[in-house]
Amino acid sequence: MGIDxxxxxxxxxxxxxxxxxxxxxxxxxxxxxxxxxxLVAVAKRQPAPRIDAALAAGHHVYGExxxxxxxxxxxxxxxxxxxxxxxxxxPLQTNKVRDAVALFDVIETVDRPRLVAALSEEMARSGRRPxxxxxxxxxxxxxxxGVLAADLPDLLRxxxxxxxxxxxxxxxxxxxxxxxxxxxxLLAELAAAHDLSILSMGMSADYETAIHQGATHVRVGxxxxxxxxxx
Length: 231
Ligand SMILES: *Cc1c(COP(=O)(O)O)cnc(C)c1O
Fold this sequence. Notes:
By secondary structure, this protein is α/β, with parallel strands linked by helices. The chain has helices spanning 8-29, 48-56, 67-80, 97-103, 113-126, 152-162, 181-193, 207-212, 222-225; strands at 38-42, 61-64, 85-88, 106-110, 131-136, 167-172, 198-200, 217-220. The site of pyridoxal-5'-phosphate (PLP) has 13 residues, from strand 8 and helix 9.
């Protein structure tokens, strides 16, 4: 009765519980097991106390969209939390590849041959092999990152057969002004066609829809932590 929303830590812990419950309900609704989907808590531009609250509540999977911001946030925290899993969900420039491979467990935004080559070289050099997802620009938006669906087979071939990257699945960010479900369905179709098991799709506004369409990972920021700090 009357959960106290007074502290940011309590607000985050409560949101975490509620989102997990909604995720489980969305999964069971379509015959998937509860707990089938991983919540990637998107930490970008969130104040430190909110992140520490989620860590204190036992959450260990986080998403970041900038390499430098992520390095600052996790440098010390990752030593205290060895179970931590960090996902890069923002665009990756080739000059940040070394730092990204050193820090992240999953790189969700592989989207072009030059980046594939740079990642391959750095993985060989460092011996670290974070899982990679290919970002697909399902809405073919000119301003958006991601490979076009039509170009996915070529990029996949380059990434796996030529570069030997550990490609585990696909990721997308649907156009903001369209219903998301058809984009999620397209991504699921592409993943099935290429025998890829990981589907990163769905954010605060539409993660349940994404789970209905087969998401294995949802990326949730503001619904969990509250509004982000301005850029
Ligand atoms: C910011 C971001 C999210 C989280 O967005 P919310 O709407 O706050 O949940 C998810 N995915 C990517 C790629 C993002 O950049």
